[in-house]
Amino acid sequence: MSCIRVGGFLALAIAGALALTTAVPAPASAANGTIVFGAALAATGSTAREGELTKEGYDFWKDYVNSHGGMKVAGKTYNVDIKYYDDESNPQTAARLIEKLVSEDHVSFILGPYGSANSATAAAAVERLKVPMVEGNGAAASIFNQGYKYTFAVLAPGFKYLQGILEMARTLKPTPKTVAIATANDTFSVEVGQGAADYANAHGMTVVYQNKYPADTTDVSAVVSAIKALNPDMILNGGHLDEALLLQRTFKEQNVNAKIFGYSVGPDTPDYRKTLGKDANWVFGGTQWSPTAKYKGAPGFIGDSKVYAAAFNKKYGHIPEYHNAESTAACLAFMYAIEKANSLDPQKVRDALQNLDVVTFYGILKFDSRGINVYKPMAVNQIQNGELMTVWPLGVQNAKPMYPTPPWNAR
Amino acid sequence: MGGITGNVTALRVTVTILVLLAFVPLLHSGYYENLGRGVLMFATLSFGWNILGGYTGYVSFGNVVFFGIGTYTSAALWQHWHQQSIPLAIVCAMVVAVVFAIVLGTPILRLRGHYFAIATLGIALATEEIVANIDWLGAGSGQAIRPLEAFSSYYVAMWIVCAASMLATYLITHSKLGYAFVAIRENEEAAAVLGVNATRYKVIAWAISAAMAAAAGAVFAGANGFIDPPTAFATDDNVFPIVMALLGGVGTVAGPLIGALILTAINETLWSHFPQIHTLFFGAVIVLVVLFLPRGLLWLLNVRGGWRGVVATFGAYRV
Amino acid sequence: MELFAQDLVNGILAGGIFAVVALGFSLVWGIMNIINLAHGAFIMMGAYTSYVLFSTWHLDPFLSIPLAFVVLYVFGYCIQRFVINYVVRAPLLTPFLLTFGLSLLIVNMALFVFHGDTKGITTQYSGSSFSIGPVTVAWTKLWTLVVALAITAVMQAFLTASRTGRAIRAMALDIDAAQLCGVRVSHLYAVVFGLGAGLAGAAGVLISLSYSLQPSMGDPFVITAFVCCVLGGLGTVQGALVGGLVYGVLEAFGSQYIGTGLQDAVALVVLLLVLIVRPRGILGKATA
Fold first, then answer.
1. B156 vs chain A: nearest CA distance in angstroms?
2. Is C85's CB within 8 Å of B318's CB?
3. N or C of chain C: less Cβ packing under 10 Å?
């Protein structure tokens, strides 16, 4: 073929494809009375389900605000809208999409992605782009040890996730003394496990087993048989839903008994109870929030957890779990900060976020100098007869903990 | 297939495109810079793979190991020695990667065909897990890297790495080294009989491939801001470069960059218009490319008889 | 000592599943010289078939094994006959990438239909176990092993005794001579691939009894299949069986004594050592 045909062919193919990619219209933020928030969320990929839950939480807030008169800033009233892109559960894609949201779509406020790795790359991106980001789903402290000024997390940090269970355990009789901790080998889970171990060591309990397994493992028999041989009073897991299911089943199969079984992720989700049936009873889970939490929220949004849960259930057909609630809380942080700053300037909003101190249905929203909400306590749930009950702290419990867990063959 | 250098016209066009890409930072668009940096990164990985897979005939499914080594070198330099310098990261990464390549290559390159391919895949998976257990490298939690304030430096660095890789490929194909590689690919035993030290050249090919991948990784890490095992050893970074080389033309100089450009364009188009099923479409793209363009676009341009020639050869490998 | 015995038992029980996983993979690789990277996707399809049958009609997974086998057999036959066949004799990279692309397609289709959330099968008897001394054996896992052994026995009988089986073995030895003898190669290639897929489906059902279901659940098993084939020796049923059992035990001990964080790395290092030291595996024949 001739030179011109080759060149033309290639150039046309590439140019054509690139032209298609930019054919997406770019709305401007805060023009004609709408504040646009941006979010890179997983709609596909390994965390698609959690991404969906996060989106529900964000959208609930958006619809509530729009149906209740919008937001008032500097004398003008605005609707809110959220522009979503699918980050495919991929951290690089999340960062790239945030670039796109800020530089192409002119968004000034970012709602965080799901997961610690995605939040980490997103945090680096917004730091560079100098727009504030509030997230409710990336709890690893390593994100916040970089000295970033533009990222804020409304959820309790990772190391607290299992501490509530240990705190509760200290008040039970006979007091459990030994604990085995198994965690998945990823950012968040390791921190959860280490937080539990540190607390245990500082309060007179003995950590007899602390080990990591590969993050996407399908086989936990070695972990289970090792734990069985040590016969601990408490067995704790920092990981994800898959392993929480796998471990609980393997514990039953291998007839491993303990006074307390505790998981950082799993018991809260309906999938867990549905899949395990009665094998899920007596299991404890650390939780950011539950529908029975007794906080009284500031005006501007639903102030009561029960009311939130009911309204959410009506809209989405399921009781909200903590992923939904913490995502809504992230939006609330922005809402109160923007109203306090009385401006849509990213810098002023960022400063308002840093100084935020407000109680919501989710709990207190206040950030330390690193951007973490260290003021937020973790509660403990327990599955009792197929129902999820909050059993700790005493101020928000709606049932007493059932203790100790009976052996498998006595159930 | 148009000889060892491929289609000269295509080469000229590709070089022009490469030069044009150098001007992307002037657009002052974070999004396009990100996109362009991705194209250059994948092209570099593809160039690296092409040296070993395209020219020497050893299909590797584990080149991401060296990419990962590059990213971790960059991360370690920041975490332990507070160095953000890009050239330093590139040089260190290349050194570490070449050492690894030589050490690993000597036993592994004795395997052929399928065994070599899966052995390299196995190395990639094993390395990811081993790194996830090394605390000095951040273990499973990963390490953060503070990006430079002058963020476009990463784009420029990636461009230089990519251009250097393309230049290296071009020089290799015009040198004794290139002919040795192709001789090994065509018939390793005959080449040995003719005096080509197959082991030495295979290791050299792998080392060059490793150096390219590591350089790309070193730049990527700084731009990304965060590295953990799944990020450093991602399957995408392993497979995409291969598909790109295949799409553009395996064993040609221009192929990898063309493949990278077109595949990235397709990828971007797909996710901006079909976000839900974009990966599904991507799988379909791979299947179609493999079935209808088994030797890549550049071959398409060279084949006698144009489109009819393509149709005639379709199914040449069927049973 | 009890830990050792428990790990050994765990390893053997796991090895049964690995053997079935490896069997299908080994057939396709040994006879057609194709490494089927979509093998994991087929396993996943088998698991979801069992899930759908269980959740809709409460069909016990063990009973859905033949159904899953047939469904996957037909699917695999068609894929080979109408897609893979066009590149089946191409150099290594082409079928490799093709099956990879197919895998992406199938997994994402499943993601679209079933969504990403984890599903599980919990039967009346799951979790129940019995003890022999210090060792606890789960009933589900024991039955899985028995069924796995049965499947390998049936496959062996098929390949040695039946007419089709003998034709397949002839084709593997010399494809042109087989064609001259009247063997319909294109049909048989599809049969072999279909068998490989069917076995993957059966393995998927067995896996669904003990593991959670997700669209990406099958991917790790491709490497498992590869390691077992290499360990045991390619192309024979006994090779797949031995490879599966040995690998199961190695993994169990490796993860206990070298570290649970490294369990996959251990397997892969074993793979590399075998490839370097004795590439034909335990039972394989030396290649000419």
1. 17
2. yes
3. C
* Ordered mean pLDDT values, 10 residues apiece, chain A (411 residues): 52 53 43 83 79 92 92 89 87 87 90 87 89 84 80 87 91 92 87 92 93 81 89 92 87 90 87 85 89 83 90 90 90 93 92 93 90 86 88 82 88 80
Most confident by average pLDDT, A46-50, B105-109, C195-199? C195-199
- Mean residue pLDDT across chain C: 87
Which chain B residue shows the shortest CA-CA distance from C175? B319
- B148 Cα to chain C: minimum distance (Å): 34
Shared domain check, A320 and A231? no
Same domain, A67 and A88: yes
The per-residue pLDDT for C30 is 87
Cβ contacts (< 8 Å) between B122 and chain C: which residues?
223, 226-227, 268, 271-272
Report how far residue A116's alpha carbon sits from residue A219's, in angstroms, rounded to the nearest whole number. Answer: 24
Would the pLDDT of B166 be above 90?
yes
Is A124 within a domain?
A: yes
Are residue A57 and residue A123 in the same domain, yes or no? yes
Q: Do C138 and A253 touch (CB under 8 A)?
A: yes
Using CA atoms, how far residue C276 sits from A105, B98, B99, B210, in Å, is 54, 21, 20, 21
Residues counted in chain B: 319
Question: Of the candidates A164, A147, A148, A168, which has an alpha carbon nearest to the alpha carbon of residue A156?
Answer: A164
Is B115–C269 a contact, with Cβ atoms under 8 angstroms apart?
no
Each domain of chain C, given as residue ranges in start order, spans: 2-106+137-277
Give how many domains chain A has, as a whole number: 2
pLDDT of residue B3: 46
Query: Considering CB atoms only, which of A218, A221, A408 is closest to C220?
Result: A218
* C50/B235: higher pLDDT: C50
Residue A19 lies in a domain: no
Give which of C1, C3, C6 to mutate to test A binding, by max A Cβ within 10 Å. Answer: C6
Task: Look at A254 and C2 and tell me if their CB atoms are within 8 Å.
Answer: no
Asked if residue A274 and residue A190 are part of one domain, the reply reads yes
pLDDT at C254: 82
Q: What is the CATH number of the domain that holds A320?
A: 3.40.50.2300
Q: Are residues A280 and A261 in the same domain?
A: yes
**Is residue A151 domain-shared with residue A37, that is, in the same domain?**
yes
Residue A16 lies inside a defined structural domain of this protein? no
Q: Do C94 and B290 touch (CB under 8 A)?
A: yes
Segments forming the whole domain that contains residue A167? 160-287+378-410
A214 contacts in chain C (CB < 8 Å): 260-261, 263-264
Residues 6+ apart with CB under 8 A from A18: B265, B268
Q: Which of B50, B60, B118 to mutate to test the interface with C (most CBs of C within 10 A)?
A: B118
Name the token pair of C71: 């469904």
Q: Residue A210 to residues A183, A202, C207, C260: CA-CA distances in angstroms?
A: 8, 16, 28, 11
What integer pLDDT is reported at residue B220 of this predicted model?
93
Structure confidence by residue, pLDDT tens digits, B280-312: 888 888 898 888 877 777 776 666 666 666 666
ipTM over 0.85: no
Same domain, A325 and A280: no
Residue in B closest to C260 by C-alpha:
B133
What pLDDT is stored for residue B216 in this prediction? 95
Phi, psi of A81 (to 5 degrees): -140, 155
CB contact under 8 A, B59 and C97: no
C224/C194 Cα distance (integer angstroms) = 20
Residue to test with chain A: of B15, B27, B31, B267, most A Cβ within 10 A: B31
Facing residue for B119 by CB, picked from C109, C189, C275: C275
Residue C218 has pLDDT above 80, yes or no: yes
Residues A166 and A227 in one domain: yes
* Residue B227: C-alpha distances to residues A96, A137, B96, B224 (Å): 15, 19, 17, 8
Strands annotated E in A257-352: 260-263, 284-287
